[in-house]
Design goal:
This protein is mainly β and 315 residues long. It has a single domain, classed as Jelly Rolls (Sandwich). It is built from two helices and 27 strands. β26 and β27 form a beta hairpin. The protein starts with 12 loop residues before the first strand and ends in a 9-residue tail after the last helix. The structure holds fe (iii) ion (FE).
């Protein structure tokens, strides 16, 4: 979700796409903590954004993590992101509350509802819109969700666009043996349960809920970069006992397991996302809705969009 009005192709931010190497450790611990900042996006809605931020340009392969809301719109006031393009990566939208109507230049359209996931591979380019559903706009109501941007490696940046839409009841879930921790497995595996979504490169995307007093450990590939974003309550990660608060993203050290716990003294559940993926370790040239490897490819993306070669929304 990016406002195209502010695009300036000469202002290109580059990341080196690499994470510093840390010695292997098992289980993973918190390496550092990033506090999300608030930012206005799309047609004017507020997001909490830990990536990119001053402290974390990139958590390779994750380019962006936005928490949309939570917000309650009055009738007629809900806003979204009107027609805009993307190229070179994937946008993944996961709703907890509210309804988002999407349309795109490949002729897809639909409405995402609470618990649903849309995994869109922009690849060579799409133009799409992400707007509140007509019913939400008319009646008003709550909106809460997430959008992440997953980078594609150079060999896949110009792949054909692809959509995967997974409804709430199709997302596998697992419960820890103490019954106090639950996970929705959007991508990858958790507690032996495997997601149904197909990703171009190995990606982990979990939505966890842990009750006060709960504790759980789950396996995760040791070659993944891993970030944990807490959006409710206070979570303890690793055997060091590091606390991570609502609105903070913890970047983890290497290791093949992660231990999560919530103190029995807490009054609220902890809710958090786990994002993991194998780093591409490639140059990143990004601006606005395009993420490529070089400045020249970025300029080509702008030229292709302005020349109408990413299509337009006809539905
Ligand atoms: Fe978008």
């Amino acid at each position: 979700m990016t406002p195209i009005a502010t695009i300036n192709p000469t202002d290109i931010r580059k990341g080196n796409g690499t994470m510093e190497h840390t010695p292997s450790s098992d289980p993973r611990q918190v390496k550092h903590i990033v506090t999300a900042h608030r930012q206005t996006e799309g047609g004017g809605f507020i997001v909490r954004r830990p990536i990119p931020s001053q402290d974390l340009e990139l958590l390779d392969p994750f380019l962006l993590l936005d928490e949309l809301g939570p917000v309650t719109y009055d009738p007629g006031k809900a806003i979204g992101a009107p027609d805009h393009p993307h190229r070179g990566f994937e946008t993944v939208t996961y709703l907890l509350e509210g309804e988002v109507q999407h349309k795109d230049s490949a002729g897809h359209q639909g409405v995402l509802r609470p618990g649903d996931i849309q995994w869109m591979t922009a690849g060579s380019g799409v133009v799409h819109s992400e707007m509140p559903s007509p019913e939400l706009l008319d009646k008003g109501g709550p909106m809460h969700g997430f959008q992440i941007w997953v980078n594609l490696p150079a060999r896949l940046k110009m792949t054909n666009p692809r959509y995967q839409e997974i409804t709430r009841d199709q997302i596998p879930t697992a419960t820890a043996s103490d019954g106090l921790a639950q996970v929705k497995v959007v991508a990858g595996k958790a507690l032996g349960v495997e997601a149904i979504i197909d990703t171009h490169t190995p990606i982990v995307y979990h939505d966890w809920t842990i009750q006060p007093g709960g504790q759980v450990s789950t396996d995760i590939s040791s070659d993944h970069n891993v970030g944990v974003y807490v959006f409710s309550g206070t979570l303890v990660i690793g055997t060091d006992g590091q606390e991570v608060e609502n609105g903070q993203l913890a970047v983890l050290t290497e290791g093949s397991t992660i231990q999560f716990a919530v103190s029995p003294n807490e009054s609220t559940v902890a809710r958090f996302l786990v994002l993991g993926g194998i780093p591409h370790n490639e140059p990143v040239a990004r601006y606005g809705p395009f993420v490529m490897n070089t400045k020249e490819e970025l300029q080509q993306a702008f030229a292709d969009y302005q020349g109408g070669r990413m299509g337009q929304i006809k539905v």
